[in-house]
Amino acid sequence: MKRLTWALIQLLLLTSLFETGFSVTTRSRGKKKVPKEPKEINVCEVDVKQSLYCDCDSDKLRNATDAKCLILNEVRVDDPAWGHFTSQMYLQKLKFMARMPNWLRQIPVQLFRQLIHLQVITFQDASIEEVKEYTFYNLSTITEINLSRNQITTLKMHSFENMKNLTAIYLDENRITEINRDTFVNLPSLKSLHLSVNNISTLHDKAFKHLTSLEELELFNNQIKVITADSFHGLRKLVTLDLRNNLIAMIGDRTFIEMPSLRELELDKNEIVYISDKALDGMKNLRKLRLSKNKLVTLEPDFLSGAPGVNFLDLKENLMKTMTFDNIKPIVTNLYNSTSHFYLSGESLSIKRPNLLHAFNPLTTVGAYWRPKHIGFPVL
Ligand SMILES: *[C@@H]1O[C@H](CO)[C@@H](O)[C@H](O)[C@H]1NC(C)=O
Ligand SMILES: *[C@@H]1O[C@H](CO)[C@@H](O)[C@H](O)[C@H]1NC(C)=O
Ligand SMILES: *[C@@H]1O[C@H](CO)[C@@H](O)[C@H](O)[C@H]1NC(C)=O
Ligand SMILES: *[C@@H]1O[C@H](CO)[C@@H](O)[C@H](O)[C@H]1NC(C)=O
Ligand SMILES: *[C@@H]1O[C@H](CO)[C@@H](O)[C@H](O)[C@H]1NC(C)=O
Ligand SMILES: *[C@@H]1O[C@H](CO)[C@@H](O)[C@H](O)[C@H]1NC(C)=O
């Protein structure tokens, strides 16, 4: 018998046919009824009495590995519906979507204890406001947790702890306001953490200190005002840090010293007026530095000396008034390379001749990627 498609289920819901008593349990029609024996509820079979319906890669008992479940009614954490997942204990990928925001308010922690093969778990469009202590704890098979697009404001301490195979956490598009210390603990495989599009104003000191394997940290579109070396304590393996579209006003001495592996630093669209000459100390591996759309008027002469490998520098759309050869001296030979990028623009920019232009002269001859139109006047 042909399986009902996901689309049809959604259509049924939209037209409220369930409420008018339309029966979708057609697959059992014609089969001999075995009386009295309580039938095990298979979460992958449509049952009008259930508060959730899962579209699975197999409908057979204990055979599905991938399920997408639609929440059709309010389900509380103590709802018996969660227990029915023993009928599909081999699930590896599981996604929940709430049709109405209030129908799922908490993460059903006990569910994870039953699904001992689970690798990827996703909750979407639910009204989860808080990730409680030890929600994701000791679950060694889980590799990816996706909590994007819920209504999370608070991550309690120890909410993600002792997960030895966890590689990625997605928490973007929520309303998280701060990142506390000891929220992410003992996650030795965690490579990427997504916290973009939230309302984070405070990164507490050493908030990420246990994330010694992390390579990618996304924090764009938040309200972060202050960053210091302590904000990034412990991120020894971090390769990319995305802080675009925050409210950072200044970069003090040695801010990034805790992240010696960093290659890409994105600081566009902040309020930066000042970068100390020691701000980039210790950034030997930095290649890409984005600072466009800030409020920089001048730069300290030596501000790039801690990051001599930079070959991509974006300073467009600042309020730059002067730019001298000393500003880019530590990286100027990198810019001769045809794979390098250097962007600069400004209404009132005056480039101190002849030094800076002298530096760029070889660029044009070796055909470097050089965009004079981003400079307020023609190059030579
Ligand atoms: C599901 O059933 C198929 C065919 O009977 C079998 O080959 C497969 O191993 C089963 N999968 C699981 C996870 O039990
Ligand atoms: C995480 O979930 C959101 C919402 O369901 C989805 O849009 C996004 O693609 C997911 N991310 C990944 C990496 O699977
Ligand atoms: C967590 O797992 C460890 C072993 O990996 C075990 O010793 C400990 O008892 C577990 N803790 C809980 C609360 O399940
Ligand atoms: C953790 O991941 C490794 C490598 O992918 C795998 O061999 C191992 O079985 C996983 N551990 C658990 C408990 O799933
Ligand atoms: C973000 O946080 C500020 C306080 O820091 C609060 O006033 C504002 O309402 C929050 N915005 C959202 C969308 O939650
Ligand atoms: C140019 O840069 C690339 C990588 O960015 C590097 O592999 C190459 O060796 C450089 N070429 C020169 C001439 O320095």
From TrEMBL:
Superkingdom of origin organism: Eukaryota
PROSITE patterns named in the record: LRR
GO cellular component: plasma membrane
Subcellular location: Cell membrane
Record protein name field: Connectin-like
Signal sequence interval, chain numbering: 1-23
Main location, first listed in the record: membrane
Protein source organism: Ceratina calcarata
Keywords: Cell membrane, Leucine-rich repeat, Membrane, Repeat, Signal, Transmembrane, Transmembrane helix
Gene3D superfamilies, A to Z: Ribonuclease Inhibitor
InterPro entries: Leu-rich_rpt (IPR001611), Leu-rich_rpt_typical-subtyp (IPR003591), LRR_dom_sf (IPR032675), LRR_TM_domain-containing (IPR050541)
